[in-house]
Every structure is written in C-alpha cells, then in structure tokens.
Amino acid sequence: MHSETDTVRRILNELGDTWAIVGLSTNERRAAHGVAKVLQRHGKRIVPVHPKAEAVHGEQGYPSLDAVPFDVDVVDVFVNSDLAGTVADQAVAKGAKAVWFQLGVIDEEAYERTRAAGLDMVMDRCPAIEIPLLD
User: Fold this and answer.
1) Can you give the pTM of this predicted structure?
2) What is the pLDDT of residues 107-121, one digit of tens each?
3) How many degrees, rounded to 5, is the angle at CA 60 between CA 48 and CA 127?
4) How many whole angstroms from its chain centre is CA 123?
5) What ranges in 14-76 are assigned the alpha helix state H?
6) Which of 38, 51, 52, 95 could cysteine-pair with 128, CB 3.0–4.6 Å?
C-alpha cells in the first residue's frame, strides 16, 4: 500500500512544518482551501502555489514551486493526476522531504520516481482526514 500508516505519521509529525500546497487558490469551494486551513490549525505553515500566485489564509502565494524562495518540507498536490508527476519531480528538485498526492491524485510512476529519490510519499489520501486519526 502506498499510504502506510507509518509514512503518513512520519510526514505529519516528523518531516517539518512548511507545506507547499500546489493548486491552492482563493476559491473557497475547492478542497485545497479547507485542507490548508486544517493544516494551519495544526501548526503547519502553508505556502500557496498556483499560477495566479494569490495570497491565501494570510500566506503569500507563488506561481510555481521553484519560485518559492525558501525550503519546503512537504509538497501537497491538488492537481489532476496527469499533471501530478511533474509536480512530484519539481518537489524532488526543490529538496522537499515528502510529497503528498491528495484524494483522487494517482500516478504510480511518479510514486516510484519520488521514492527512488529518497522522499516519503503517499497517494490518494488527505492530511485533513489523517491528522485527527493521529490522536
């Protein structure tokens, strides 16, 4: 299984608190908006990454992952599965410690590449669902 409990726990508890959220915009109806708020409530710094580079939940947005001028620990991916592999590759290049593909985001080849590069990764899971299960 791609989302072993120990990997989920490690990403949420041990790999750092700066989460780049790719696909996060000001659209409150999108899942990324609510998930980002949950992550903030649990002490994570969110970094919106979206072509519009909008500020969301009080955090400066950036048009791409490589435009973020500081290190990120986890890259949380809210894009279609056909685009997710490119984002995973960018996360590796950025030096992230983990990649999290959200519910419905699946790319087996990207999973294998990311794991081979030494990053932790989960697919088809949501941190907003997983965080309460840690308690």
Assistant:
1) 0.94
2) 999 999 999 999 999
3) 30
4) 10
5) 31-41
6) 38
